[in-house]
Specification:
This protein is 26% helix and 14% strand. The chain is α/β, with parallel strands linked by helices. Bound molecules: 1-deoxynojirimycin.
Length: 581
């Protein structure tokens, strides 16, 4: 099924000895519309990113994950692609992209494209053709079904963006499946022509020189045949389709096929990371085992949903023990064979300092503490733009401040359809809405934060006067300086990049404790992830030979043995001497 016969054969097994580059790497995610505007239209663009590359190189970033920049009606911030082989004029041109890629490579960095192929935009020519008639050759490229009972969708799945996952289409009187917005019809991966078209498109980007992919909701591509009903969800008209459309029966087969068809003999140089909601650590181990030839790492969601109640609109206080148990399980399960992605933030998440830290009096200390803990795990850390300066949640006062389709649809469903109280609904949306992570990047204290000369597409957080890159670059005690140190530490010590990782004190609701070990070297990371002092349960801590490498207080204990208690948000990294050092 390939236009390049050579790629049809399974790739030869990779040389076992080499450590892939991405195991020592730190990634940085750019959400282009909010990163840097260069042409004064209030929306970030590729030339804007190019102008900021020196900053990323200075920070120590190895690889950039670029959120979608393809032509798109922008119903879902570009995750609704209408042409996979071009750049949306909003962001620039293909030539701008080539220049950006060359400039990334000149600085020794790499770039990942965001590939969105569980679904397309409803304006993609494939879908336009598909919906045009039941006998159109592309009809089977999407999931079309006649209504089994007039007026009732083909199954009871709910969309992840509210409402039914099925949309009745007037052209033919049939329904199509959309797990996300109505404007995002799901591609039918059972059809080999769909898969071949996707692989060909991915090879096209590789031929342009990109260094890998972030694959959007890639464990949704295999659905249980027949698309049966899900278990009813109490209090809603929908059933739970998630077990039926995530990690489906052909998932491993499709991943392996993609690897053979796209990655092939370029395995050693590419990075392929899959976004995989609802994947378990045990499944992720199978996917990231290099011997399987599937993906290099996944973005899992278990740890990032520990504060969800029924869903993200039902925010619950964080129980640190729950967060630790989850991440400990992932570290233990993936251990030597698999590989973790590490993240607190991305364009779908609120800012960690507002979510689980303290964005008031302890903003700096708590932002550093969460940075320290994240970067101390085994895996590849992903820094989301603005996380490195401790950016906080957006000011989301009224409905107009929410621009994200997921937020808007939820509000319409709750208030307009179900009659929920508007103020209560907005209150429940504020803490975890995706809008929180999408405010423009805060480069300086200037009126538009140095992001744009024009009114930005989304309001700049007024706290940019105090929280911005320019001020922090000149401040050795800043959050930015701390992130730079964390990245430097990872780059300079295989202990941090490659060492084993064990979490201890799992039941403690304030302390986050990690032990790392690698070829006789050791590290101990102790953090108080709370705003009140924490006594150490079994002090003094006997970890002979370890000394303080990094702290977010100026006068922390020099050795673990000298530790008695930790101040609010205090986070310490102790390491053994480097061999021969
Ligand atoms: C995950 C992306 O990160 C999110 O922003 C998007 O809305 C959905 N996938 C659908 O593409």
């Amino acid at each position: 099924m390939t236009d390049r016969p050579a790629a049809a054969a399974p790739a030869p097994p990779a040389a076992p000895a080499a450590v892939p580059w991405w195991k020592r790497a730190v990634a940085y995610q750019i959400y282009p519309r909010s990163f840097q505007d260069s042409n004064g239209d209030g929306v970030g663009d590729l030339r804007g990113i190019l102008a900021r590359l020196d900053y990323l190189a200075w920070l120590g970033v190895d690889v950039i994950w670029l959120s979608p920049v393809y032509p798109s009606p922008q119903a879902d911030g570009g995750y609704d692609v209408s042409d996979y082989r071009d750049i949306d004029p909003l962001f620039g041109t293909l030539d701008d992209f080539r220049d950006l890629l060359a400039a990334v490579h000149e600085r020794g960095m790499r770039l990942l494209m965001d590939i969105v192929v569980n679904h397309t935009s409803d304006e993609h020519p494939w879908f336009v053709e598909s919906r045009s008639g039941t006998d159109n050759p592309r009809r089977d490229w999407y999931h079309w079904r006649a209504a089994p009972t007039p007026g009732r969708p083909p199954n009871n799945w709910g969309s992840r963006f509210s409402g039914s996952a099925w949309q009745l289409d007037a052209a033919t009187g049939e329904y199509y499946l959309h797990l996300f917005a109505v404007q995002q019809p799901d591609l039918n991966w059972e059809n080999p022509r769909v898969r071949a078209a996707v692989y060909e498109m991915m090879r096209w980007w590789l031929d342009l020189g990109v260094d890998g992919f972030r694959l959007d909701v890639i464990n949704f591509i295999s659905k249980v045949p027949g698309l049966p009903d899900g278990e009813p969800i109490e209090g809603t008209p929908y059933g739970d389709g998630r077990p039926l459309y995530t990690n489906g029966p052909r998932m491993h087969e499709f991943f392996q096929e993609m690897h053979r068809e796209v990655v092939a003999d370029r395995d050693a140089v590419l990075l392929i990371v899959g976004e995989t909601p609802k994947i378990s650590a045990e499944q992720a181990l199978l996917v990231t085992d290099p011997a399987a030839g599937e993906l290099d790492m996944v973005f899992q969601f278990e740890h990032i949903t520990v504060d969800h109640g029924r869903d993200r609109w039902d925010p619950q206080p964080l129980r640190l023990s729950r967060l630790k148990r989850s991440l400990a399980h992932w570290q233990d399960t993936l251990a030597e064979t698999g590989w973790n992605s590490l993240y607190w933030e991305n364009h779908d998440q609120p800012r960690v300092v507002s979510r689980w830290g303290d964005d008031g009096a302890y903003r700096v200390a708590s932002a550093k503490a969460f940075g320290t803990v994240l970067h101390s795990h085994r895996g590849t850390p992903y820094v989301y733009q603005g996380q490195e300066i401790g950016m906080t949640n957006a000011e989301l006062a009224g409905l107009d401040d929410f621009t994200d389709i997921q937020s808007r649809n939820h509000y319409a469903d709750a208030v307009d359809r179900l009659g929920a109280d508007p103020d209560k609904t907005l209150r429940s949306m504020r803490p975890l809405a995706r809008d929180n992570g999408r405010t423009p990047m805060q480069w300086s204290a200037e009126p538009r934060a140095g992001f744009s000369d024009a009114p930005p597409w989304m309001a700049v957080n007024p706290n940019h006067r105090d929280v911005n890159v320019e001020d922090q670059r000149g401040d050795r005690d800043s959050v930015l300086a701390h992130y730079r140190e964390l990245i430097r530490l990872r780059h300079s010590r295989d202990l941090i990049a490659l060492g084993s990782c064990r979490l201890t004190h799992l039941d403690h609701e304030q302390l986050y404790v990690l032990e790392r070990a690698y070829r006789g070297e050791r590290a101990l990371v102790v953090a108080n992830l709370s705003g009140t002092p924490a006594e150490l349960p079994d002090a003094p801590w006997r970890h002979p030979g370890l000394t303080l490498a990094l702290s977010n207080y100026p006068d922390s204990a020099p050795t673990p043995g000298a530790l008695r208690s930790l101040r609010p948000w205090e986070a310490l990294v102790f390491v053994s001497a480097e061999p021969g050092g």
